[in-house]
Write a structure and sequence with these properties.
- The chain contains seven helices and seven strands, in the order βαβααββαβαβαβα.
- The protein is an alpha/beta fold and 218 residues long.
- A seven-stranded mixed sheet has the order 3-4-2-1-5-6-7.
- It is globular.
- The two termini are 30 Å apart.
Length: 218
Amino acid sequence: MSHWPADVDPHIAPEPERSALLVIDTQVDFLDGGSSPIAGTSAVVPTISRLVRGFRDAARPVVHVVRLYEGDDVDLPRRSLVASGAPVVRPGSAGSQLAPQLRPAPDARLSPRDLLAGQLQPLGPREWAMWKPRWGAFHRTPLDAHLRALGVSTVVVAGCNYANCPRATVYGASEHDYRTLIAQDAISGVEPLHLEEAARMGVLHATTAEILARLPRS
């Protein structure tokens, strides 16, 4: 079975006490009213926010993985758009910031200088932001080393537009031998077929309520 909790192979069973939450691309420009809104993203932000708060309360790591478009280091399908001057998650812009409901403090802002230099920006206790230059959060980033240093074995993936960056991140997590869990109600654009495809790689899915119910108490 691919829906968790269930009796599954012990090699892929999530370990909530060693889990981290990855929130993908949940930035103002991708919300309703933003410069490049992604359908359904604003609708799932309250659920993502609940998941983030649950991980904070459990003292488990949270990494907000973001896009920032500047210069030529942009994925090929968007180079023309960015070169045209389109105001899409431009470094330092209001649209590049995390969705307000996800910020650890109302005045929390991303630091493009640190992020574009490949650093993880601390946002709060056991909470960081990280820039990814392409679709997947493990490609050309310090994410794997960061998670290993924290003793993480399990990643929970939530965020914006499953078919692109969350899906690439799920594949990357599996390739790096993380036990991987999709928060099915905390990602925009996720379809039953996506969950079936992920299950063939040993990736499980669960609702936010199911995930939070099994997080350790801090």
